[in-house]
Amino acid sequence: MNNALNSIAADSPWHINEWELLLRLFLAVLLGGLVGFEREQSNHAAGFRTNILVCLGSCLLMLLSIYGFAQFVNETNVRLDPARLAAQVITGIGFLGAGTILFTGKSITGLTTAASLWVVSAIGLSVGAGFLLPAIAATVLVLLVLVLFNKLEKKFSGGKREHHLKVLADEKEALLQAVSALLAEQGIVMRKLSLQEYGDRELERPRVMLLLHITFPQQDKLIPLLEKIKGLEGVHAVSAE
After folding, report:
1. CA atoms within 13 A on the CB side of 127
2. Which residues of the chain have pLDDT under 70?
3. The overall pTM is greater than 0.85
4. 33 lies in which domain range?
5. Whether residues 103 and 180 fall in one domain
Protein backbone atom coordinates (compact mmCIF):
# COMPACT_ATOMS: atom_id res chain seq x y z
CA MET A 1 0.00 0.00 0.00
CA ASN A 2 2.79 2.41 0.95
CA ASN A 3 4.64 1.58 -2.26
CA ALA A 4 1.52 2.40 -4.28
CA LEU A 5 1.13 5.74 -2.51
CA ASN A 6 4.80 6.56 -3.09
CA SER A 7 4.41 5.68 -6.76
CA ILE A 8 1.40 8.01 -7.08
CA ALA A 9 3.30 10.81 -5.32
CA ALA A 10 6.33 10.34 -7.57
CA ASP A 11 4.15 10.66 -10.68
CA SER A 12 2.49 13.83 -9.41
CA PRO A 13 3.65 17.17 -10.87
CA TRP A 14 3.35 18.59 -7.33
CA HIS A 15 5.92 16.19 -5.86
CA ILE A 16 9.72 16.40 -5.80
CA ASN A 17 12.12 14.22 -3.87
CA GLU A 18 14.67 15.71 -1.48
CA TRP A 19 17.72 14.91 -3.61
CA GLU A 20 16.35 16.62 -6.70
CA LEU A 21 15.37 19.61 -4.59
CA LEU A 22 18.91 19.91 -3.24
CA LEU A 23 20.36 19.43 -6.73
CA ARG A 24 18.35 22.36 -8.07
CA LEU A 25 19.43 24.60 -5.20
CA PHE A 26 23.11 23.78 -5.69
CA LEU A 27 22.79 24.23 -9.45
CA ALA A 28 21.30 27.68 -8.85
CA VAL A 29 24.31 28.54 -6.68
CA LEU A 30 26.68 27.33 -9.40
CA LEU A 31 25.02 29.21 -12.27
CA GLY A 32 24.57 32.39 -10.27
CA GLY A 33 28.18 32.12 -9.10
CA LEU A 34 29.49 31.92 -12.67
CA VAL A 35 27.79 35.17 -13.62
CA GLY A 36 28.70 36.76 -10.29
CA PHE A 37 32.36 35.85 -10.71
CA GLU A 38 32.52 37.77 -13.99
CA ARG A 39 30.79 40.77 -12.38
CA GLU A 40 33.22 40.60 -9.44
CA GLN A 41 36.22 40.53 -11.77
CA SER A 42 34.88 43.66 -13.47
CA ASN A 43 34.48 45.44 -10.10
CA HIS A 44 30.74 45.96 -10.39
CA ALA A 45 28.41 46.72 -7.49
CA ALA A 46 26.51 43.42 -7.75
CA GLY A 47 29.30 40.86 -7.59
CA PHE A 48 29.88 37.22 -6.70
CA ARG A 49 27.78 36.84 -3.55
CA THR A 50 24.96 39.11 -4.74
CA ASN A 51 24.36 37.11 -7.93
CA ILE A 52 24.51 33.82 -6.03
CA LEU A 53 21.94 35.02 -3.50
CA VAL A 54 19.62 36.36 -6.22
CA CYS A 55 19.78 33.09 -8.18
CA LEU A 56 19.41 30.92 -5.08
CA GLY A 57 16.53 32.97 -3.68
CA SER A 58 14.69 32.92 -7.01
CA CYS A 59 15.15 29.15 -7.25
CA LEU A 60 13.90 28.61 -3.69
CA LEU A 61 10.81 30.74 -4.25
CA MET A 62 10.04 28.86 -7.46
CA LEU A 63 10.36 25.55 -5.61
CA LEU A 64 8.11 26.88 -2.86
CA SER A 65 5.55 28.11 -5.37
CA ILE A 66 5.33 24.73 -7.14
CA TYR A 67 5.91 22.18 -4.38
CA GLY A 68 5.49 24.02 -1.08
CA PHE A 69 1.71 23.82 -1.02
CA ALA A 70 1.25 20.34 -2.49
CA GLN A 71 -0.68 19.16 0.57
CA PHE A 72 -3.50 21.54 -0.32
CA VAL A 73 -3.96 20.31 -3.91
CA ASN A 74 -6.94 18.14 -3.15
CA GLU A 75 -8.64 20.62 -0.82
CA THR A 76 -12.01 21.99 -1.89
CA ASN A 77 -11.96 25.43 -3.55
CA VAL A 78 -8.15 25.50 -3.61
CA ARG A 79 -6.42 26.27 -6.92
CA LEU A 80 -2.64 26.40 -7.01
CA ASP A 81 -0.84 28.83 -9.30
CA PRO A 82 2.86 27.93 -9.63
CA ALA A 83 3.62 31.21 -11.40
CA ARG A 84 2.27 33.51 -8.69
CA LEU A 85 5.42 33.74 -6.55
CA ALA A 86 7.59 33.82 -9.68
CA ALA A 87 5.80 36.97 -10.82
CA GLN A 88 6.52 38.63 -7.48
CA VAL A 89 10.20 37.72 -7.78
CA ILE A 90 10.45 39.61 -11.07
CA THR A 91 8.93 42.70 -9.42
CA GLY A 92 11.29 42.46 -6.45
CA ILE A 93 14.36 42.11 -8.65
CA GLY A 94 13.28 45.27 -10.48
CA PHE A 95 13.66 47.25 -7.26
CA LEU A 96 17.02 45.61 -6.50
CA GLY A 97 18.32 46.33 -10.00
CA ALA A 98 17.20 49.96 -9.76
CA GLY A 99 19.54 50.36 -6.79
CA THR A 100 22.56 49.55 -8.97
CA ILE A 101 21.79 52.29 -11.54
CA LEU A 102 23.55 55.59 -10.96
CA PHE A 103 22.93 58.89 -12.75
CA THR A 104 25.81 61.35 -12.67
CA GLY A 105 25.51 64.40 -14.88
CA LYS A 106 24.83 63.08 -18.38
CA SER A 107 26.19 59.63 -17.65
CA ILE A 108 24.15 56.62 -16.55
CA THR A 109 25.98 53.60 -15.13
CA GLY A 110 24.86 50.25 -13.76
CA LEU A 111 22.36 49.33 -16.47
CA THR A 112 24.26 46.18 -17.43
CA THR A 113 24.57 45.14 -13.78
CA ALA A 114 20.82 45.66 -13.27
CA ALA A 115 20.08 43.63 -16.40
CA SER A 116 22.40 40.83 -15.27
CA LEU A 117 20.59 40.62 -11.91
CA TRP A 118 17.27 40.36 -13.75
CA VAL A 119 18.59 37.57 -15.98
CA VAL A 120 20.18 35.75 -13.01
CA SER A 121 16.82 35.79 -11.23
CA ALA A 122 15.21 34.30 -14.36
CA ILE A 123 17.90 31.60 -14.38
CA GLY A 124 17.11 30.80 -10.74
CA LEU A 125 13.39 30.59 -11.46
CA SER A 126 14.09 28.26 -14.41
CA VAL A 127 16.23 25.96 -12.26
CA GLY A 128 13.55 25.89 -9.58
CA ALA A 129 10.93 24.93 -12.16
CA GLY A 130 13.12 22.12 -13.50
CA PHE A 131 13.86 23.97 -16.74
CA LEU A 132 17.51 22.99 -16.41
CA LEU A 133 18.80 22.94 -19.98
CA PRO A 134 17.54 26.45 -20.85
CA ALA A 135 18.92 27.72 -17.52
CA ILE A 136 22.39 26.36 -18.30
CA ALA A 137 22.22 27.62 -21.89
CA ALA A 138 21.13 31.07 -20.68
CA THR A 139 24.08 31.20 -18.26
CA VAL A 140 26.51 30.42 -21.09
CA LEU A 141 24.93 33.11 -23.26
CA VAL A 142 25.05 35.66 -20.43
CA LEU A 143 28.77 35.02 -19.92
CA LEU A 144 29.30 35.30 -23.66
CA VAL A 145 27.55 38.68 -23.73
CA LEU A 146 29.34 40.03 -20.65
CA VAL A 147 32.84 38.89 -21.60
CA LEU A 148 33.12 38.65 -25.39
CA PHE A 149 30.67 41.36 -26.40
CA ASN A 150 32.22 43.73 -23.88
CA LYS A 151 35.58 43.38 -25.65
CA LEU A 152 33.96 43.88 -29.06
CA GLU A 153 32.12 46.96 -27.83
CA LYS A 154 35.33 48.52 -26.53
CA LYS A 155 37.15 47.71 -29.73
CA PHE A 156 34.62 49.19 -32.15
CA SER A 157 33.42 52.09 -30.01
CA GLY A 158 36.93 53.28 -29.35
CA GLY A 159 36.50 52.82 -25.62
CA LYS A 160 35.04 56.31 -25.16
CA ARG A 161 33.82 57.03 -21.67
CA GLU A 162 32.65 60.10 -19.83
CA HIS A 163 34.75 61.19 -16.88
CA HIS A 164 34.25 63.83 -14.24
CA LEU A 165 37.32 65.86 -13.37
CA LYS A 166 37.72 68.07 -10.31
CA VAL A 167 40.48 70.67 -10.41
CA LEU A 168 41.33 72.65 -7.26
CA ALA A 169 43.28 75.78 -8.16
CA ASP A 170 43.97 79.38 -7.30
CA GLU A 171 41.43 81.80 -8.72
CA LYS A 172 43.03 83.02 -11.92
CA GLU A 173 41.48 84.36 -15.10
CA ALA A 174 43.84 82.32 -17.26
CA LEU A 175 42.89 78.98 -15.63
CA LEU A 176 39.91 78.19 -17.86
CA GLN A 177 41.81 79.08 -21.02
CA ALA A 178 44.77 76.93 -20.00
CA VAL A 179 42.62 73.88 -19.19
CA SER A 180 40.50 74.28 -22.35
CA ALA A 181 43.63 74.54 -24.51
CA LEU A 182 45.08 71.43 -22.92
CA LEU A 183 41.90 69.40 -23.53
CA ALA A 184 41.71 70.59 -27.14
CA GLU A 185 45.33 69.60 -27.65
CA GLN A 186 44.53 66.06 -26.46
CA GLY A 187 41.42 65.78 -28.65
CA ILE A 188 39.10 65.59 -25.65
CA VAL A 189 35.48 66.75 -25.88
CA MET A 190 34.26 68.84 -22.94
CA ARG A 191 30.56 68.17 -22.27
CA LYS A 192 30.03 70.43 -19.29
CA LEU A 193 32.01 72.90 -17.22
CA SER A 194 31.24 74.60 -13.92
CA LEU A 195 33.26 76.78 -11.56
CA GLN A 196 32.65 76.93 -7.83
CA GLU A 197 34.19 78.97 -5.06
CA TYR A 198 36.23 76.86 -2.68
CA GLY A 199 37.25 77.73 0.87
CA ASP A 200 37.45 81.13 2.51
CA ARG A 201 37.34 84.25 0.38
CA GLU A 202 39.57 85.97 2.94
CA LEU A 203 42.58 83.92 1.82
CA GLU A 204 45.38 85.82 0.16
CA ARG A 205 44.78 83.82 -3.02
CA PRO A 206 41.16 82.54 -3.12
CA ARG A 207 40.68 79.06 -4.58
CA VAL A 208 38.10 77.64 -6.95
CA MET A 209 36.88 74.14 -7.84
CA LEU A 210 36.66 73.54 -11.55
CA LEU A 211 34.25 70.70 -12.47
CA LEU A 212 34.65 69.19 -15.94
CA HIS A 213 32.58 66.50 -17.67
CA ILE A 214 34.65 65.17 -20.56
CA THR A 215 34.50 62.35 -23.12
CA PHE A 216 37.87 60.66 -23.14
CA PRO A 217 38.78 58.58 -26.22
CA GLN A 218 41.85 56.76 -24.83
CA GLN A 219 41.63 55.36 -21.33
CA ASP A 220 45.35 54.64 -21.05
CA LYS A 221 46.11 58.37 -21.35
CA LEU A 222 43.88 59.51 -18.49
CA ILE A 223 46.67 59.54 -15.90
CA PRO A 224 49.08 61.52 -18.16
CA LEU A 225 46.26 64.04 -18.71
CA LEU A 226 45.79 64.46 -14.95
CA GLU A 227 49.52 64.97 -14.55
CA LYS A 228 49.52 67.69 -17.22
CA ILE A 229 46.61 69.50 -15.57
CA LYS A 230 48.33 69.18 -12.18
CA GLY A 231 51.38 70.81 -13.77
CA LEU A 232 49.47 73.97 -14.73
CA GLU A 233 50.35 77.07 -12.72
CA GLY A 234 48.10 77.54 -9.69
CA VAL A 235 46.62 74.01 -9.72
CA HIS A 236 46.76 72.27 -6.33
CA ALA A 237 44.88 69.00 -6.86
CA VAL A 238 43.18 66.98 -9.61
CA SER A 239 40.83 63.98 -9.33
CA ALA A 240 38.85 61.92 -11.82
CA GLU A 241 35.77 59.68 -11.59
Report:
1. 32
2. 1-14, 45, 69-80, 97-110, 153-161, 171-173, 191, 198-206, 216-221
3. no
4. 2-156
5. no
